[in-house]
């Protein structure tokens, strides 16, 4: 399984909103996953390891995580989806 296929599987969260947000980020060219450096990709993996309730709070409600390494990736995911 390729890295992108594995990530696409991990982006499937069971809620339509999160699936769309994370999927858009994964598919975006200039401001999505493909544009991330190694550190950014590691932060995205860390984001995918978080609980759905936290992701909803950060990505849909506009709150920011307390972990500094997640703040940038949350901001990028929201921007790639036009939020």
Automatic annotation (TrEMBL):
Keyword Iron tagged: no
Keyword Metal-binding among record annotations: no
GO cellular component: cytoplasm
Alphabetized UniProt keyword annotations: Chaperone, Cytoplasm
Gene3D superfamilies documented for this protein: Flavinator of succinate dehydrogenase
Cellular localisation: Cytoplasm
Primary location: cytoplasm
GO biological process: succinate metabolic process
Domain of life: Bacteria
Pfam families, A to Z: Sdh5
Family statement drawn from the similarity comment of this UniProt entry: Belongs to the SdhE FAD assembly factor family.
Name of this protein: FAD assembly factor SdhE
